[in-house]
Design a protein that fits this description.
413 residues; alpha/beta; TIM Barrel; two-stranded antiparallel ribbon; allosteric enzyme; porphobilinogen synthase activity
Length: 413
């Protein structure tokens, strides 16, 4: 039985319940007369068989043609002939094509996971940072606005601000840190006026404002004063919140600062402002380029009496428990890639969101390796960010935020 037939268009009325999917069949060579005075080409209709007709044909053995089974690909000459291994589970089955790998991917990366660290200064011009190719001290009125616009275009809507403060404003007690008309509060107000939905993180620490270059007030014998520093940090956090900051981020590593800051913010009516604590901030050698960017190297000594020993693992749990108890909303690990074990430790032991900071040294090494053609910069960049997510980071502070987001969006610039 033919699956379809072609009939000329005649005055006969076709039953729409019997004939379905009628389509014109062209070209036509004959013309038929119609009741109309004008001549026009008749239409020929293809009457398709029903599903039941096709099923009946298959049951009767009239199976339609299909492409043949593809041949087994040949192995290269010399390949040994062996009996298949008696393996019940072969994990490679789930990796055999790009579609399989995508379907079973456990960790994903999105521009929404990025917080973009941006350096700002009082000048109009954007000044390149030698140790961090592609990064600049941005003029707070113009260059910063343009960079934020670029980031938002590719889905990065969170930034963290780091100021380069004029030396003339630096003091041993860092009072400029809570000047409500200082560089950071002014910048926050400008950004919120331009982009009200932008999520602004701030850095809470005295080192950019201190004439000593330390995160806290330095006593004459070189000791970093804890409680007095916390007092200053609370005023800094409140000034930033009043300007419109969404998340204040104490990076100083003073004891008790999260609880004191939470109380100070709440007392001023800023219960809605979050605290991202630098919970496990290590005394790392990976921070060098950052200190060049802000001109914030310690005038003497180091930061080992308040930042954590890179050799310590369990100590991170102590810091985590204190920050949770004191009211932190987000826990951050710094640096990122060399401390994946610490990120996982916090992820497995806390219900709070975990942040990781891919610091300046990590960024600069990847940039340098790419420039020397020793690595594929883009692939290493994306792999490093994926590894931070896999370790347990919900958000990543990274100088690659704009570049990586463009890759994720398929944009090449």
């Amino acid at each position: 039985m033919a699956s379809s037939s072609t009939i000329p268009n005649t005055p006969l009325t076709l039953n729409s319940h019997t004939y379905v999917d009628l389509k014109p069949a062209l070209p036509l060579k004959n013309y038929l007369s119609f009741s109309s005075s004008k001549r026009r080409p008749p239409c020929l209709f293809t009457v398709r068989a029903s599903d039941a007709d096709f099923e009946a044909a298959v049951v009767a053995g009239n199976v339609p043609d299909a492409p043949p089974v593809p041949p087994t690909p040949a192995a290269p000459a010399g390949t040994p002939v062996v009996t298949s291994l008696p393996i019940q589970r072969r994990p490679r089955r789930n990796r055999r094509s790009a579609t399989h790998r995508s379907a079973f991917q456990e960790t994903t990366l999105s521009p929404a996971n990025f917080v973009y660290p941006l350096f700002i200064h009082e000048g109009e011009e954007d000044t390149p940072i030698g140790a961090m190719p592609g990064c600049y001290r941005l003029g707070w009125r113009h260059g910063l606005i343009e960079e934020v616009a670029k980031a938002r275009d590719v889905g990065v809507n969170s930034v963290v601000l780091f100021p380069k403060i004029p030396d003339a404003l630096k003091t041993p007690t860092g009072d400029e840190a809570y000047n409500e008309n200082g560089l950071v509060p002014r910048t926050i107000r400008l950004l919120k006026d331009k982009y009200p939905d932008l999520v602004i993180y701030t850095d809470v620490a005295l080192d950019p404002y201190s004439s000593d270059g330390h995160d806290g007030i330095v006593r004459e014998d070189g000791v970093i004063m804890n409680d007095e520093t916390v007092h200053q940090l609370c005023k800094q956090a409140v000034a930033q919140a009043r300007a419109g900051a969404d998340v204040v981020s104490p990076s100083d590593m003073m004891d008790g600062r999260v609880g004191a800051m939470r109380a100070a913010l709440d007392a001023e009516g800023f219960q809605h402002v979050s605290i991202m604590s630098y919970t496990a901030k290590y005394a790392s050698s990976f921070y060098g380029p950052f200190r060049e960017a802000l001109d914030s190297n310690p005038r003497f000594g180091d930061k080992k009496t308040y930042q954590m020993n890179p050799a310590n693992y369990r100590e991170a749990l102590t810091e985590m428990r204190e920050d949770e108890t004191e009211g932190a909303d987000i826990l951050l690990v710094k640096p990122g890639l060399p401390y994946l074990d610490i990120i996982r430790l916090l992820r497995d032991n806390s219900p709070l969101p975990i942040a990781a900071y891919q610091v300046s040294g990590e960024y600069s090494m990847i940039k340098a390796g790419g420039a020397l053609k020793m690595i594929d910069e883009e692939k290493v960049m994306m792999e490093s960010l994926l590894c931070l997510r896999r370790a347990g980071a919900d958000i990543i502070l990274t100088y690659f935020a704009l570049q990586a987001a463009r890759c994720l969006c398929g944009e090449k610039r």
